[in-house]
Amino acid sequence: MAAAPIARSFLQVAATEEVATPLRVVQIEGLIIKHCKEFSPALVTGQLLGLDVGSVLEVTNCFPFPIREEDEEVEADGANYQLEMMRCLREVNVDNNTVGWYQSTLMGSFQTVELIETFMNYQENIRRCVCIIYDPSRSSQGVLAFKALKLSDSFMELYKTNNFTGEKLREKNLSWVDIFEEIPIKVSNSALISAFMTGLEDDTPVTQCDYDRLQLSTNPFLERSAEFLIECMDDLSMEQQKFQFYHRNLSRQQSQQQTWLQKRRAENMARKAAGDEPLPEEDPSNPIFKPIPEPSRLDSFLITNQISNFCNQINGVAGQNFSRLYLMKALHEN
């Protein structure tokens, strides 16, 4: 007779087995869009609340952070505000588990060091946190400009060491495309909201969003995207100049070291001939043997990410605009 299996409690299973399910989908509602559009073009941010269920991160609620001046005690007031809001949500039986934060952006410019530092601060307590990026300017073109981002594990390990030299990046096989991971987004509203929106629908099958998609005037958006792209190219050129300056200094130092080493070897040969002890061939007190620190490549990686984002935006908008123009040409001919 087979022995009966030993029943284990949930805490025992959680203590002995850790299920590392990869995050595949972020499910959100439309509250983020409302907050970002109301304050556009000002940039806003807020807290994401929800549940981490298997491979799906469900964002069930959110609340905005207050906009404060720079001279106020932002950090202390912001922390107290978050705690008070989460306490109030808990009292009314609303999900108050932090799963990340959201922020609006202008023309898709969000790849910054501040974003990475915020990620690392969240990651200390929340292993699978995400950042929802919403771009109201892109949404005005008839596109739902949502992105769910997280830092890659390999980048976070390297960021903790704060060593972004070329040798370390080659060792980790890390490039600029390996900083962020984009997770697919699923927009889902509650049954009550869906029923309310269905009641608001007109009899006509055409909505305002459909008209927005047919707008032919995309020159302002393309011009601003091109301006931001040019600024990023200038920033990348400045970063390259830093590396060129570093390599020139390194080459000059190596030349000085070789000259000093040749003199020291000639001096040692003379000392050996005189029967004296040779001097060491390295002198740590000499400034020419002090290592020159290599500039960090993190800024250049982020700028390259930003350039790629702007190029994709321009490519997508230009392709859609050509399709509209050909459509209007066919309608005029008919």
TrEMBL record:
One of its GO terms (molecular function) is translation initiation factor activity. InterPro entries: eIF3h, eIF3h_C, JAMM/MPN+_dom, JAMM_MPN+_peptidase_M67A, MPN. One of its GO terms (biological process) is formation of cytoplasmic translation initiation complex. Residues 264-291 are annotated as: Disordered. Residues 18-155 form the MPN domain. It is found in: Cytoplasm. One of its GO terms (cellular component) is eukaryotic translation initiation factor 3 complex. Residues 264-275 have a biased composition (Basic and acidic residues). It comes from the Eukaryota. It holds the Pfam family JAB. The keyword Cytoplasm applies. The keyword Cytoplasm applies. Keywords: Cytoplasm, Initiation factor, Protein biosynthesis. Component of the eukaryotic translation initiation factor 3 (eIF-3) complex. Belongs to the eIF-3 subunit H family. Component of the eukaryotic translation initiation factor 3 (eIF-3) complex, which is involved in protein synthesis of a specialized repertoire of mRNAs and, together with other initiation factors, stimulates binding of mRNA and methionyl-tRNAi to the 40S ribosome. The eIF-3 complex specifically targets and initiates translation of a subset of mRNAs involved in cell proliferation. This is Eukaryotic translation initiation factor 3 subunit H. It comes from Linum tenue.
